[in-house]
Amino acid sequence: MLYEHKRQTLADSLKYDFIIIGAGIVGLSTAWQLARQSGGSRILLLEKETGPAQHQTGHNSGVIHAGVYYEPGSMKARFCSEGSRATYDFCNEHRVGCRKTGKLLVATEPDEIPRMKQLFERCRENGLEPRMLGQGKLQDLEPAITGLDAFLVEESGIVDFPGICDVMLEQFLELGGTARFAHEVTAISEHSDQIEVHTAQGTFSASCLVACAGLMADRIAMLQGLDIDFRTIPYRGEYYRLRGELNKLISHLVYPIPNPSVPFLGVHLTPMVNGSITVGPNAVQGWKREGYGRVNFNLHDTSQILSFPGFWKVSAANLKHGIGEYRNSLWKSAYLAKIRKYCPRLKASDLEPYPAGVRAMAVTRDGKMVHDFLVKETPRSVHVCNAPSPAATSAIPIGGHICKLLSQRRAG
């Protein structure tokens, strides 16, 4: 099987020191760093798909975030700042495609100006060096973009996140790790002396488990019997791609000033590492956790969503915004209108189909979205229950944080 390590011939009952569930960028970062730091440890990576980066890691904007939006002092802000630097360093060392494009945040309406200035100051609080532009300098930098005012964050960029995952996996295997793909976890049993992870192919045991399951984080936690008060609610992010003749339209990331009452950043323009430009994403309610195609409904996923009280509360609190996002999803002209606010030259015929993504949003029983990283621990496990954007940017420090938690356990 693709990516299968030579140790695959060993008995399924082999005991490991660590088992990691999930081969997205957070799980792979953890596995890679753990293998580097704990020489000689037996580490097993389990993934239900046939290869790495099949879900959120491989279905996002490919943006290296700099830390524009996040509460100063929060884990999200700290991990993003550390992660952006670490991501650039990793890509430069391992020749993974990336480019520091800079990000323009563009105000197009008068009531956005105060919010833009607040974001500008937050950038400074988070250690960035934003540069206010005004209309004239904005036009000089990006002739196709219009706005009342804007500022530039030069630290932002773009990257091939799946490419990072491929390198991390390769190095993990070279360091002696074992990866088993197409191994879906069906049960987890924690005992005083070990933890057992059950799959259809066999049972694996270890001294410690790390779960980085993304869209399935709540289900993996419940498989182990953890008492959690949240559920993972999927939000579908739909993208377009500009037709090829427009690949030189912009050179910077171009973002609107976000609405502070919702957790999403708005429809933006992204020059990708492959030379194309994507448009999006929006944020509509998902009815299938891994729904990337045109038909996106799963009865089991939907019944779990509808039976959770937090879903109804968070939906009621964001009803007006949610209806607007559905309108934009159903009518291309409405979606286009969001972009034309800052890029008026675009037409409906300029937008071509592009694969969607699905965000995993942890929502508590009382209807609150969990905006920061959420980790739950038991004596023999660490569960990353919520890793919201910018988790991909922050994956290296997140993995380092998990490794630190594990080393503290061993030292104790």
Secondary structure category? alpha+beta
CATH superfamily of the largest domain, by name, is D-Amino Acid Oxidase, subunit A, domain 2
Q: Looking at the structure, what is the overall shape?
A: globular
State the separation between the terminal residues, measured CA to CA.
39 Å
Share in β-strands: 25-35%
State the CATH architecture of the largest domain: 2-Layer Sandwich
Question: The biggest beta sheet, please?
Answer: 8 strands, mixed
CATH topology of the largest domain: D-Amino Acid Oxidase, Chain A, domain 2
Number of strands: 20
Evaluate the radius of gyration. Answer: 21 Å
Q: Indicate the percent of residues in helices.
A: 25-40%
Tally of separate helices:
11
**The number of domains:** 2
CATH C-level class of the largest domain: Alpha Beta
Stretches with pLDDT under 50, minimum 5 residues: 1-12
What do the pLDDT scores average to? 93
Structural summary, described in words:
The chain is of the alpha+beta class and 412 residues long. The protein folds into 2 domains: 6-56 and 162-229 and 372-411, FAD/NAD(P)-binding domain; 99-158 and 233-364, 2-Layer Sandwich (D-Amino Acid Oxidase, Chain A, domain 2), CATH 3.30.9. The chain has helices at residues 25-37, 75-94, 112-125, 134-141, 161-174, 217-223, 299-306, 309-317, 319-330, 332-340, 395-411, and strands spanning 15-21, 43-46, 63-64, 98-99, 103-107, 131-132, 149-153, 157-159, 178-180, 185-190, 195-199, 202-211, 230-242, 253-256, 268-271, 277-280, 284-285, 351-364, 374-378, 381-386. Strands 1, 2, 9, 10, 11, 12, 19 and 20 form an 8-stranded mixed beta sheet that branches. Strands 13, 15, 16, 17 and 18 form a 5-stranded antiparallel beta sheet that branches.
